[in-house]
Amino acid sequence: MNIISYIHPTRTYLPCTGVGRHINNILLGLEYDDDINLELICSKQWIKADGKLDIRSPLREIPLKTFPFPENFSERLWKFAQFPKMDKYLSKQTEWLYAPMETYIPVSYCPVAITIHDVQAFETNLPWSSTLQHRWFRYKWGQWIYKALSNYRVIFTMSEFSKHRMIELLGADASKIVVVGNGVDKPFYDIASTDPVKLERPVNNPYTFIIGGLRLKKGADFVLDVAKGLLDTNSDIQIVVAGDSEPEYIAAAKDLPNVKLLGIVPDNDLPRLMRCASSLLFLSHYEGFGIPAIEAMATGTPSIVSNRASLPEVVGTAGIVVKPEDTAAIVDILIQLEKNSQLRLDYSQRGKKHAKEYTWSRCVDIVQKAFYEYH
Question: Edge-to-edge strand order for the sheet containing 2-6?
Answer without folding.
Answer: 64-67, 37-43, 2-6, 96-99, 112-115, 154-157, 177-179
